């Protein structure tokens, strides 16, 4: 265990030709089995997987029947509201990205990194609060100053409110994702003031501790906080950082992959009951990858591909109180006709974590709509925040009781 400093429209399947789930699963199994003997050919494997589960290159993700749902609006049953956290014409920084959201006893708190552009040394972590009267004016609460002469950019903030204890704000500092390190600051007044940030520490298997790399942790019944994380300095690999004392000490589980079959980062953790967990990850292989744990996250299966595309962009997911699983993601691949890459942002739901059903389209237009974060608040509503053209952060509220898996009739 590493010691750290004490800190006070319908169902849509992404196939080149429609076919049954059983046939797709069989194909994937055969492919995975065959490729195990040549795992060193990771580029070939990624290409074959992408061809198996995603549209042909140059073909838009939604150009095949049946179509994805149209863009959600006031007439959409599950849609409650949407708003910008701050106006684009009066934004605090030129560029804003990688938002996160948490609920406190005093309302919602959102954070993101902002500055001249991603990776610029002036990028810091910004906060806005919503106590019921709209979002407050953003303020910068963390930066990457090392001295008066040296400042690094800040990256990927993650907010988390434990069952007991202060609001936690994790973020990264460093010149690049391969060299960054994790920081933690806390707030005892629901995000108004923040403690002196502290570096998380190091661990032999991964190098610098990062905390949750993009998506929120989960907290187990015994209070243990499990942070989904990943590194990029030895290939894209997934691991978990676990703390039982609100970040004072840490244990690392993994990495669970070697970046040969899948280059995966930025996992989200879903829970399925009886200690069963699942992660969903961003990959370079044109799909969302998944892995499973049967023992509360202590050990994990190998990563495998889902039927959902991914344009090498961040996703987030949440397990709802009624057991439904919700994923927010870009239902596109990187190189195709419009929409491609981060031009379209979507919501899919699943009962079992295996069969996923796209049910909402949040954005579909030129520009970047990406890096979502999603939570369920105490009133049952689902809150999503995401990057809007790198100009602002958009907040969308959904009623999950009206998110329905499409039937054969509605899929026509």
Automatic annotation (TrEMBL):
The keyword Transferase does not apply. Keywords: Membrane, Transmembrane, Transmembrane helix. The keyword Membrane applies. Residues 108-384 form the Sialidase domain. The chain crosses the membrane at residues 29-53. InterPro entries: Sialidase (IPR011040), Sialidase_sf (IPR036278). PANTHER family: BNR/ASP-BOX REPEAT FAMILY PROTEIN, BNR_ASP-BOX REPEAT FAMILY PROTEIN. This is Sialidase domain-containing protein. It comes from Bremerella alba. The lineage of its organism: Bacteria, Pseudomonadati, Planctomycetota, Planctomycetia, Pirellulales.
């Amino acid at each position: 265990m590493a010691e750290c400093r004490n800190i006070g429209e319908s169902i849509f399947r992404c196939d080149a030709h429609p076919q049954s789930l059983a046939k797709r699963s069989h194909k994937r199994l055969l492919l995975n089995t065959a490729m195990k003997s040549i795992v060193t050919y990771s580029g070939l494997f990624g290409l074959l997987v992408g061809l198996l589960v995603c549209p042909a290159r140059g073909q838009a993700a939604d150009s095949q029947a049946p179509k994805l749902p149209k863009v959600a609006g006031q007439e959409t049953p599950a849609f409650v509201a949407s708003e910008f956290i701050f106006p684009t014409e009066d934004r605090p920084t030129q560029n804003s990205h990688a938002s996160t959201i948490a609920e406190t006893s005093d309302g919602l708190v959102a954070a993101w990194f902002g500055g001249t552009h991603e990776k610029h040394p002036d990028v810091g972590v910004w906060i806005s609060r919503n106590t019921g009267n709209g979002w407050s004016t953003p303020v910068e609460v963390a930066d990457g100053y090392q001295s008066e002469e040296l400042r690094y950019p800040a990256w990927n903030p993650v907010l988390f409110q434990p069952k007991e204890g202060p609001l936690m704000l994790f973020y990264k500092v460093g010149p690049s994702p391969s060299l960054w390190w994790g920081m933690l600051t806390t707030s005892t007044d629901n995000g108004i003031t923040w403690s002196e940030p502290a570096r998380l520490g190091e661990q032999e298997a991964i190098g610098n501790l990062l905390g949750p790399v993009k998506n929120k942790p989960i907290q187990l019944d015994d209070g243990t906080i499990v942070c989904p994380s990943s590194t990029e300095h030895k290939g894209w690999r997934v691991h978990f950082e676990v703390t039982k004392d609100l970040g004072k000490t840490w244990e690392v589980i993994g990495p669970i992959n070697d970046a040969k079959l899948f280059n995966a980062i930025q996992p989200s953790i879903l829970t399925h009951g009886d200690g069963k967990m699942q992660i969903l990850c961003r990959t370079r292989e044109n799909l969302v990858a998944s892995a499973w744990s049967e023992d509360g996250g202590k050990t994990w299966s190998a990563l495998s591909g889902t039927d959902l595309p991914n344009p090498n962009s961040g996703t987030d997911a949440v397990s709802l109180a009624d057991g439904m699983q919700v994923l927010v993601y870009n239902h596109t691949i990187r190189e195709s006709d419009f929409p491609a890459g981060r031009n379209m942002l979507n919501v899919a739901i699943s009962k079992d974590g295996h069969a996923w059903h796209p049910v909402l389209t949040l954005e579909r237009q030129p520009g970047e709509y990406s890096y979502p974060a999603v939570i369920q608040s105490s009133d049952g509503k689902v809150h999503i925040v995401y990057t809007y053209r790198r100009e602002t952060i958009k907040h969308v509220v959904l009623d999950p009781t009206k998110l329905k898996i499409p039937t054969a009739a509605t899929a026509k």
